[in-house]
Fold NAD(P)H-dependent oxidoreductase.
Amino acid sequence: MKTLVIISHPDLDESSSQQFLLAAIPKNENITVHHLEINYPDGNIDVFREQELLLAHDRIIFQFPFYWYSSPALLKHWQDVVLTEGFAYGQQGSMLAGKEFCLVLAIGVKESEYQAGGRELYSISELTKPYQALAFKTEMIYLKPLLIFQFAYLTHEQKIQLYMDYQQALTREKDDSLQAREKWLLSQLENMDKQNLADAEHATLSNAIAQIKSNRSTIEELRLILEQMR
Amino acid sequence: MKTLVIISHPDLDESSSQQFLLAAIPKNENITVHHLEINYPDGNIDVFREQELLLAHDRIIFQFPFYWYSSPALLKHWQDVVLTEGFAYGQQGSMLAGKEFCLVLAIGVKESEYQAGGRELYSISELTKPYQALAFKTEMIYLKPLLIFQFAYLTHEQKIQLYMDYQQALTREKDDSLQAREKWLLSQLENMDKQNLADAEHATLSNAIAQIKSNRSTIEELRLILEQMR
């Protein structure tokens, strides 16, 4: 699976959340990071190049700070000029059909304000309807978004979780089963660069992998017994 | 009441719907028309000037073609740079509080597609939640939007109705009572430029005004009788 991360942010260098996410992106030929403001400082978008990029990937990520309940202006401009009739929708062709679409949003206000009675009035699911409608019209599969509320206030543990969640948003095949998450975790552990690990750490890692595999065997055995009992 | 019409459209001259609306705007010192793309072709928005404009008006109109369920990019950029914390919201000040906010949207797809089962999936009320949340956060009063579906296919009669509806969106005080609509209509009739009218037309107009006033008297009398009967 190839993933295209389209980032729109007017000042990427100054954003601690965006820098954190950038550092979390696995160096991987299957992931393309594409920052619009760097590529098009004058706003003149190369429509053909952008459409080629979309065609070459299976999962499209829109990653941006949630300003006034939407994206920065350049991503909106990109939508208007790149997602044309005959390419993205309409009778002549829906070239994005079947691809996956996922929002990664950095949100400055805490989650509990996004509801009736809160300062932001509506939920993120309500406020992102324009993106859901976009995915529907272009026949893309709308994935659960990755919502990052108030990055600056995250604890160390929450940041580690975010690191994992973000990598999964970029690379994990769409499947929420326990087994799929386990498989993804195993492949991450097994592909880790282990050169810099001390022997003890290396052993811990091997034990963790063995433990997960052993748990899986137990689960499979239990499932078999259950099926025989039916 | 002073009304600020903020128009965002990348090519106003080529838009028949926008030209129709421009022609319908009453020449009136209480209405300011402000086209963003003409004022800021390079996108460098004069924030102070824009905030002054907002402060000087009571009703703020956002008028634009509904591209990908939102505005053209320049209006989004305007929102992000003009509606700052301490000006539009936050503890330091909500300078827009109590003003009225109204969307005037030109929409290329027919109304019936904007629902579950339709090609656009969601209603306009659902898709405009970001603007409703904006009005809520800035403490502005969200008025019923003026939605123009498929302008090119409107009949002559529908265009006349749109002409009236648009003038009302710009100038009529917020009050949906029959009496308020009647009052607005009377003031429009009485303020018409009658120099170019033939005598017969002049008489028709005078009769119409007299008729409306007479109807109003009858209604008031009936109301009085009803109250006495209680």
Remarks:
- Chain A has a mean pLDDT of 92.
- The longest helix of chain A spans residues 199-229.
